[in-house]
């Protein structure tokens, strides 16, 4: 193998796929990146056996061949080289030689045969969606995913595809985030898949806020997103996601409407003196006044009042303030609406100008 490439042409693709490189080495090859040099292209592949990222660079290659290199060392070398410098990469005696200007590096390699690959995908269904839409759906729901829950199917994001709608749902058992968008997917039946947490976070990093479409390929075990120059593949969680429709409350007796930013600031002020472990905060609402109360084991107390619009009987209810702040942080809407039934029932948070998103928070006993 021998090739010459500009630093930027190698650095940018490396930065895009480095998230798939295994940090804790269960297999030495997982800390490497696979380079496949064809006559007119260089392909980079990184995987941790759960997700796989492949990117292609169109270029002329002097000598074709395959090689695996330490991914993070290669990335660090590219970052340290001067901008617009040229890198020459060649192979000699199982060592990779990198040369740029007066800098020379010799990197250890591992056999290409040791580099693992995800199983080939047999497509069950395919559709296209804009990057902007997919990115927004992930950003508005992924915060509610569980972390290392024994109910493994909660440690990911449910993606549901139907002929007219694309839905994303996440829950950790204490809260639920739901978002839906219109789609033109040519799918006969409703299909659900659960994308694992790492795959969700890595995909969100790759997506941009643009109208360019990506192709989504679904199989029984994998989800693949095809960008113009990158292929993202992730294994799916094999499990049954809870029926989210049973969790989302129907019509309620009491409806509170408030300025989103003013409510967020009031919650932050009250939370300063909440219990650091349980983060409980009491909400009392009557007429047009919302009272937020918090106290901690040191018998310190916070009382914050906010003027709101409210329809319903006087109500007192407790919530984890972090859950409420997380919801308010994912929207830029000016108004937020909370639908309440009683002190023992969950709260439904929505934004009047964003009807495609819903958030459910379970109450706390204080």
Describe this structure in words.
This protein has 366 residues and is α+β, with helices and mostly antiparallel strands. It has 3 domains: 2-114, DNA Polymerase III, Chain A, domain 2 (Roll); 125-246, DNA Polymerase III, subunit A, domain 2 (DNA Polymerase III, Chain A, domain 2, Roll); 249-361, DNA Polymerase III, subunit A, domain 2 (DNA Polymerase III, Chain A, domain 2, Roll), CATH 3.10.150.10. The chain has 7 helices and 25 strands. It has helices at residues 7-17, 71-80, 131-141, 197-206, 244-247, 260-271, 321-329, and strands spanning 2-6, 32-37, 41-47, 51-58, 65-70, 86-92, 95-100, 103-108, 125-130, 156-161, 165-171, 175-182, 191-196, 213-218, 222-226, 230-235, 254-259, 280-286, 289-295, 301-307, 309-311, 315-320, 335-340, 347-351, 354-361. The strands form 4 sheets. The chain has a 9-stranded antiparallel beta sheet with strand order 13-10-11-12-25-24-23-17-21. An 8-stranded antiparallel beta sheet has the order 5-2-3-4-16-15-14-9. It has a 4-stranded antiparallel beta sheet with strand order 1-6-7-8. Strand 15 and strand 16 (230-235) form a beta hairpin. Helix 1 (7-17) packs across helix 2.
Topology of helices and strands:
Elements: E1 2-6, H1 7-17, E2 32-37, E3 41-47, E4 51-58, E5 65-70, H2 71-80, E6 86-92, E7 95-100, E8 103-108, E9 125-130, H3 131-141, E10 156-161, E11 165-171, E12 175-182, E13 191-196, H4 197-206, E14 213-218, E15 222-226, E16 230-235, H5 244-247, E17 254-259, H6 260-271, E18 280-286, E19 289-295, E20 301-307, E21 309-311, E22 315-320, H7 321-329, E23 335-340, E24 347-351, E25 354-361
Antiparallel strand pairs: 1-6, 2-3, 2-5, 3-4, 4-16, 6-7, 7-8, 9-14, 10-11, 10-13, 11-12, 12-25, 14-15, 15-16, 17-21, 17-23, 18-19, 18-22, 19-20, 23-24, 24-25
Helix pairs in contact: 1-2, 6-7
């Amino acid at each position: 193998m021998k090739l010459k490439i500009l630093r930027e042409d190698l650095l940018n693709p490396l930065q895009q796929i480095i998230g798939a490189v295994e940090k804790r080495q269960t297999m030495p090859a997982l800390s490497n990146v696979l380079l496949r040099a064809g006559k007119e292209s260089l392909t980079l592949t990184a995987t941790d056996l759960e997700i796989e990222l492949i990117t292609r660079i169109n270029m002329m290659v002097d000598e074709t061949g395959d090689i695996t290199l330490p991914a993070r060392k290669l990335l660090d070398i590219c970052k340290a080289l001067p901008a617009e410098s040229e890198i020459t990469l060649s192979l000699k005696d199982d060592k990779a030689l990198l040369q740029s200007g007066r800098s020379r590096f010799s990197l250890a390699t591992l056999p290409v045969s040791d580099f693992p690959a995800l199983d080939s995908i047999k497509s069950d269904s395919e559709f296209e969606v804009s990057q902007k839409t997919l990115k927004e759906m992930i950003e508005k729901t992924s915060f509610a995913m569980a972390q290392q829950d024994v109910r493994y199917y909660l440690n990911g994001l449910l993606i549901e595809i139907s002929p007219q709608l694309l839905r994303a749902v996440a829950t950790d058992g204490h809260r639920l985030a739901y978002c839906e968008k219109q789609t033109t997917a040519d799918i006969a039946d409703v299909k659900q898949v659960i994308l694992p947490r790492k795959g969700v976070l890595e995909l969100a990093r790759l997506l941009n806020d643009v109208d360019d479409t990506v192709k989504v390929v679904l199989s029984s075990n994998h989800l693949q997103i095809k960008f113009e120059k990158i292929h993202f593949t992730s294994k799916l969680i094999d499990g049954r996601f809870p029926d989210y429709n049973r969790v989302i409350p129907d019509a309620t007796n009491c409806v509170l409407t408030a300025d989103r930013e003013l409510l967020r600031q009031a919650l932050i002020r009250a939370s300063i003196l909440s219990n650091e472990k349980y983060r409980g905060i009491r909400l009392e609402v009557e007429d047009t006044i919302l009272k937020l109360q918090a106290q901690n084991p040191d018998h310190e107390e916070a009382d914050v009042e906010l003027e709101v619009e409210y329809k319903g009987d006087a109500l007192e209810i407790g919530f984890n303030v972090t859950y409420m702040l997380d919801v308010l942080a994912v929207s830029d809407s000016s108004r937020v609406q909370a639908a309440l039934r009683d002190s023992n029932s969950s709260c439904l948070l929505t934004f009047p100008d964003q009807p495609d998103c819903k958030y459910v928070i379970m109450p706390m006993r204080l």
